[in-house]
Amino acid sequence: MNAHTPGPWDHYPTGPRMRDMYQQPFCITQRWLPNMIAGIFGDGRGGLDAAKVNAALIAAAPDMLAALRALSPGFGAGLQSGLYKQTMVTDALAAIARAEGRP
Description:
By secondary structure, the protein is α+β, with helices and mostly antiparallel strands. The chain has helices at 16-21, 47-59, 61-71, 75-81, 86-99; strands spanning 9-13, 26-30, 36-40.
């Protein structure tokens, strides 16, 4: 699998064409570059507010993945000391794997 587009990512409101024709009120871009990574559709339940929050969450994904990767070498010591619970470590490792496209 190829690596994801490097972060940091940002989210912005889209212009009239993306918003009106494609129903994508927000987009995800690589910071400082004009290329769009993803368009964010409105959420039928939460409307524009949900779309904006979803865009912010998706834009934060590379930073969250980097943070989990940075913490992962200490998972064993954290379990031994009681700082982490097994479910926390299992969930964190599963999130890393999912972000990397692994089962």
